[in-house]
Every structure is written in structure tokens, then in C-alpha cells.
Amino acid sequence: MIELRDVRKVFNEGQHNEYAALSGITLTIEPHRVTALRGPSGSGKTTLLTLIGCLARPTSGRVSLHGRDISGLPERFLTEIRRKTFGFVFQQFNLIKGMSALENIMLPAYPTGRPHKELKLRAASLLERLRLSHRGGAKVEWLSGGEQQRVAIARALINDPEVLIADEPTANLDTALAREFLALLESFGQEGRAVILTSHDPLVVESAAVHRVVDMRDGMVVTR
Fold first, then answer.
1. Biggest alpha carbon distance in the chain?
2. Which of 62, 150, 173, 198 is the S-S candidate for 177 at Cβ 3.0 to 4.6 Å?
């Protein structure tokens, strides 16, 4: 589904502070599976997520989606691919304060041009699935950490993406909430989505919900 071939990512290239965040990554991401990227801080996990999710371009190498090389596409095409293919759950959730849970969930779908009523129904159904229907009208800053994460997950799913990307998704959750999140991951894989996450939490990487753990160190894959 997603294939990376000899991908490198260099920051400040040609300058005195040049830094290679990724050094020759070759990796295949499959649908219907939950893949966890594991490694210490600075290993390149988050940088790799940004390349997979078309949030950044590789310095060299190739990133392919369904056999199509997307590495060098113009930004307007990458934006469309991001919108249709990927859903993102960020470590800090990045919800918009002052807006309700329902409004936050609907935001990524506005550029698609779908009718407002349709989007509202879709957002409401996601809230129901995640047991948050009773909080749909609440401003996100009034929600607990676990509730905010479920809103972030619903927002990531609003466009029905093929791939869900999550960066350290349990970092701010207690054990009970982390287990709830893992149960959700398992259901997403069963629906046919590819799930890619970063984590160094043993509760996550050793969970039955995770099908594959990719170990990283110093910008390289050390196990597949």
C-alpha cells in the first residue's frame, strides 16, 4: 500500500548544522494492519510519519502510494492526497479551543465541499461510536484528556481515510484510557485501514492490537 525506498531526510542541507534525520529507510506499510514505530527520542520516528503522511518530502528516495510515486508531486496534489487518504492524531491533539467537539471533528471535511448537513451527521455518528454523543456541544477545552483524544480520533476519521497516523497517541493517557485506545486501533485494522503509530510504551508495542513493530535508531530501521 505504502512503500518507501532508500528514503533520506536531511535538514539544513549544505550548512554547518546539517542533520540527517532519516538515512536510507526502506519499508512497506500494509493495509488491515497496525504498525508501530519504536525507538528512542531522535531516532527518526516522527520524521518518518511526516513523510508517510505527505506532510513533508524526502530529500532523496521514493515514497509510493498504491504503486504511484508521490515523492515529487506538487503541493496541491499532496494536499488532496492527505485529505482523502490520511487521518492524523497528533500527540497534543491540536484541537481548536473555543469550538465544540462536533465543530472540531467537522473541520477537516469542509474543503471537500460536502453538504454541511451530511458532515454534521457523519461527525455525530463518530461521536456516538466513540461514546461521546453527550459531549458533542461542549467546547473542547472543557473535555478531559481521554475525551479530547477521542475527539481527535473522530476528527481523523471524518473523511474516512485509508490510513490513520498517530504520533505517541498514549503519551498523555493513563493505563485504562490507553487500553481503550488500543481496542479502537484493533477495530480500525479490522475495517481495512492501515494504522501507523509511534510509541515507546510497552503497553502499546506489546499489545495484541499491534501486528508489527518496526524498531528505529539513528534515522535507520534496525528491525522490520
1. 54
2. 173
What is the DSSP track for 155-211?
HHHTT--SEEEEESTTTT--HHHHHHHHHHHHHHHHTT-EEEEE---HHHHTSTT--
Which pairing describes strands 34-38 and 212-217: parallel, antiparallel, or unpaired?
A: parallel
Half-sphere exposure of 26 (CA within 13 A, CB side): 2
* CATH of span 2-223: 3.40.50.300
Asked if pLDDT for residue 224 goes beyond 70, the answer is: no
Structural domain spans, the chain: 2-223
Coil/strand/helix, residue 35: strand
Q: What is the pLDDT of residue 48?
A: 95
- Phi, psi at residue 71, to the nearest 5°? -60, -40
pLDDT in tens, 161-185: 999 999 988 887 888 888 888 888 8
Task: For 185-215, write each residue's pLDDT tens digit.
Answer: 888 878 888 999 999 888 999 999 999 999 9
Q: How confident is the model at residue 92 (pLDDT cuts 50, 70, 90)?
A: confident
Contact call for residues 143 and 175 (beta carbons, < 8 A): no
Report d(CA 27, CA 47) in Å as an integer: 14
